[in-house]
Amino acid sequence: MTIYIPELTDNNTLFPDVNRALKEPDGLLAMGGDLSPQRIINAYKNGIFPWFSDGEPILWWSPGKRATIKANFCHISRSMKRLLKSNKFTVTINSAFAQVINRCAKPREYQAETWITDSMIAAYIKLHQLGFAHSVEIWQEQKLVGGLYGICIGTLFCGESMFSEVSNSSKVAFIALNQHLHRFQGELIDCQMQTAHLQSLGVQELSREQFIADLQKCRDKKIDRGCWDRQEVIVKHTNG
To answer: What confidence score (pLDDT) does residue 238 get?
Structure first.
């Protein structure tokens, strides 16, 4: 079956209306353009994100359902509470962004390849240098063992990927992010697509329409100063 999708122009502010996204494959909206900081930020501000593999054109997506969670609403299981109480890990913000994205780019055991291409890595490192992309790092005995990264748009954090080299370290990173955003008046985390891993942490699906409405409320606000300063954070074993 032939799929027809719009090709982006050189104008990095223009994207098709997200309601024109395909139902199959779910959310495919447009192709082409570039990975300039301005285009990527404009995409996120409109509920769109890039996702493609090596050898493909740049593809832009806005799925019909969006996995999200409010700040400070993370589900913490009994086993996770015990882990957090043990102080097994040290958690930091923006201390090793390049290391985190490169670890996230490694193919998983069940994957033949990664969608985090060299061009994506370069683009998001540039966004980090410009103050838009951020990371959470999990350390054990001064070794990086887990983490996540994403883009902050106003009071919304758009999560991109996470990795775990020690059991539950990515869950600790996600709980840490959820609590940290709340401390600095952040409101919502966009996880893009639902997974069993995210669902166990309390992530729920919204319709595209509801997500866009929430995005529009968050994108022009300013998160409290200091949120993305390089720092060590304490993860509580309960929310609130």
So the answer is: 86
Name the residue with tokens 């074993």: 237
What CATH number matches the domain at 18-64, 3.40.47.10, 3.30.70.3550, 3.40.630.30, 3.90.1720.10? 3.30.70.3550
> Average pLDDT of each block of 10 consecutive residues along the chain (240 residues)?
86 95 96 97 98 94 98 96 96 98 83 77 98 98 97 98 96 98 98 94 97 98 96 91
* Pick from 42, 44, 41, 92: nearest CA to 66: 44
CA–CA distance, 106 with 117 (Å, rounded to integer):
10
User: Residue 185: which region, alpha, beta or left (left: phi > 0; alpha: psi -120 to 50)?
Assistant: left
Q: 190-207: buried (b, 16+ CB within 10 Å) or exposed (e) per residue?
A: bbbebeeebeebbbebbe
Tell me what pLDDT residue 115 has: 80
Domains of the chain: which residue ranges?
18-64, 67-233
**Residue type for 233, please?**
V
Q: Which of 52, 71, 70, 68 is nearest to 60 (CA)?
A: 52
**Predicted TM-score (pTM) of this structure:** 0.95
Sheet holding 156-164, edge to edge: 204-207, 65-70, 188-192, 156-164, 143-153, 133-140, 90-93, 231-233
With CA atoms as reference, report the closest residue to 33 among 65, 16, 9. 9
Q: How many CB atoms lie within 10 A of CB 67?
A: 20
